[in-house]
Amino acid sequence: MFRFLFILLGVFYFYTPTVSAATLYMDPASTTINRGDAVTVAVRLLPDKEQGECINAVDAVINYSDNIQPIDVSIGKSIFSIWVERPVIDKENRRITFAGGIPNGYCGRVDGDPMLTNVLTEIIFRSPGMQVGQSESGDIASIEFAPETQALLNDGQGSLAQLATFNSSIKLEKKCWGDYS
Fold this sequence. Notes:
This protein has one helix spanning 2-14; strands at residues 22-27, 30-35, 38-46, 55-64, 69-74, 82-90, 95-106, 119-126, 139-145, 150-153, 163-166, 168-176. By secondary structure, it is mostly beta strands.
């Protein structure tokens, strides 16, 4: 009996199934800026190359905390050539949405490509200056993919890809622009 349990536990211990998934991530994952400064956060895509996966489309919803403000969105470096919904900043709900795709799918960076060619969009965020009565300690701003974000496979059926998402955090220093004390 114990021998059977030992073998069963050994099988579970040594057999750890790997869950493969396409990845949406923000670059940089974390950074620090002074109050009043701006930072560009790129939204990037990595298909699961081990599974031979190609991503045809992404429908993204990004939420951000109230201590950071998006000021612009750029699609100039995007791999998407088709936009169902160009990036929209909804300041009232602190949400950015976009939906786009690429014919024949994006299968990952081609060998020999020296650039990071997996940009979907770039979002420029600005940290507001210090407010009267605000704590001088640094805050952390968060930029996160909402659960309804999805990626679709280039499989002729528009199947949902298993998706992993990685968010971004921005440490907001207490120094304001022009404050060199």
